[in-house]
Amino acid sequence: MYERLTGRVYGELDPSDSRNAIITDLDLAPRTASGMVAYAADFVLLKPVDMGRAHGVLRYMAPNRGRMLERPDSLDLAQGTVFLWGAWQGDVPAGEGRLTLDAPVARQPDGSSITGLVRVELAGRAGAPLQMPLQGNVYNAGQIPYAPAALHDAGDVLTTRVRETDSRIYIARGAWAFASCDRERAPFPGTPSTTTVCVADGFQPDYLYELVYRARDPKVLGVGLAAVRDMISFFRFASAENPIAGSIRHAMGTGTSQAGNFMKTFVHLGFNGDLEGRRVFDALFPLVAARQTNINARFAVPGGGGGVRLDHRAFGQTAARGFAADYVDELRGEAGGIFTRCAATGTCPKTFLGLSGSEMWVLQGSPVLTDAYGTRDLVQPENLRIYYFAGTQHGTAPIAWNPELTLYPAGVQSDFNPIVRALWQRLTEWMMDDTPPPASRVPRIADGTLVRPEELKYQVMSGVPFPVDGRSVPIASFRYLGWYNSLGLLDFGPRFDESDETGIADWQPPAYMGKDYAILVPAVDADGNEIAGVQPVGNAAPLGTNLPYNYGANLALGDLFWLSGSFIPFHITREDRLAAGDERLSLEERYGDHAGYIAAVRRAAEQLVEDGFLLRVDADRLIAEAEPRTRSGMP
Fold first, then answer.
1. What is the DSSP secondary structure assignment for residue 288, as one 8-state letter?
2. Residue 83: which of 235, 226, 259, 225 has the closest Cα?
3. Helix (H) or strand (E) holding 255
4. Number of domains in the chain
5. Mean pLDDT of the residues in the chain
6. How many CA atoms lie within 13 A of 608 on its CB side?
7. Is residue 239 assigned to a domain?
């Protein structure tokens, strides 16, 4: 039986302590009477009522934009794991169950406001609304925005364009305003506001808007790094006022997507050693986390992202991708990887990194595997395993198709979640008993499974019927358009350390230095399914082609469809596929009958169990779920 404890952690940081020195603007934060910088963070602790049943593991699950996305697994509950969620992001608004961090606001030594440039990108919407929130793009929607230093600063600039690469068109200063407005109740210029922006003719659909303005009162968001360090250290080591005192031998941390990026930044910036030099996390598992998180800069944007079109040059893309302590970024001409600082203090955790196809195509994932030029595979550290989940996308969702939104049916049959469940057990064994986990499984340059996108070869996939609004609509022939998210060398100005994503960005938008990191992607087989990596059952026994990317229906925008994949089913019979001109084998040709398909599912599941990537209970479930599946070609 478990009990749930909720509360707030109140902490203080010493700005003169060298272990806090990397936190941007900590020296400009307000001080307590004792000269410290105070913060407070929400937490949720889930623990066995009888701590005698605990098996000594504390598992921290970093919130994603304040949300407790990760949930306890039944196996961990049965074993007596203690679970902790604790806030780290200081621009998350309270409410709706979000965990928040109270971070101090930096001030000039005389107490006056600090100002600086902030850049926001917004996508126009259907109906051309007059108003949008300053934090209104898909990556950072809903976070607390930075207030403009003045509502009518002539230096603030709003531009628009269609494609990211198009020239910017300036919108006259009198045609937009920091204001709240709508066409009926408060027409432009509306009511002055520090949280929303209005455009006289509305935010037109299919247009990209970029606002660069002078903001004020930056929060010291890097405090969140120290808050997690000290929170985990307290629950792990403290004896007084600690509800789990004396019961924790190991701590492990995870984060999914943005939260996983945060965990990588946490280690990279040296926070996995506590104030007494002890290791904070013994093990980490950042999942679908290709980058690091912009948390330790003035006017940081921890919830930002980056796509082919929107936020293409956003924060969060410049910090080290390689893990090894001796990693060298040849393009930037700098040495240092994610493990450099922890290696110097002996505090590096055993780490799993899990990647889906979305990280390779949309989130510039391949530099964690190769040198900057994409000419050789990196030698990874002994305490790191990287697992690429073939044919997967950033998250899971039912396969569906709205032709007005995506060029191909959105979603994939290939699911990494059962594999991740097994990997948590492998990581726990590695952490507690030093039992070696499976070797890394990733596409590689050396064996031809990691290639330039333009080198991919696809057979024709066409004419497959797919249900849309009660109708059977044929999928148009697959066309490989070659779009992927590039990664350019960016410069945010002389006071910003791009390799650490730390400091003050004086240049917005950042300067593009005319150089790009190589972006490589996994090679595919004759069906268009990926060859290398851990093979989920849906990719090893496929009912169609699992593409880890998709295109927006409006190709004129030149954009991938966020973090979605595509599923293009196989035809059922040979006659059907020949009539449609589809070069992939039909279900009938590859499996014979339904029994043949079930046999293929069973073989795939058994192989994963044998290799340590699937639990027996999940293998049995996947086989059972395949039994009633019809021969429609749909998962």
1. S
2. 235
3. strand 250-256
4. 1
5. 95
6. 34
7. no
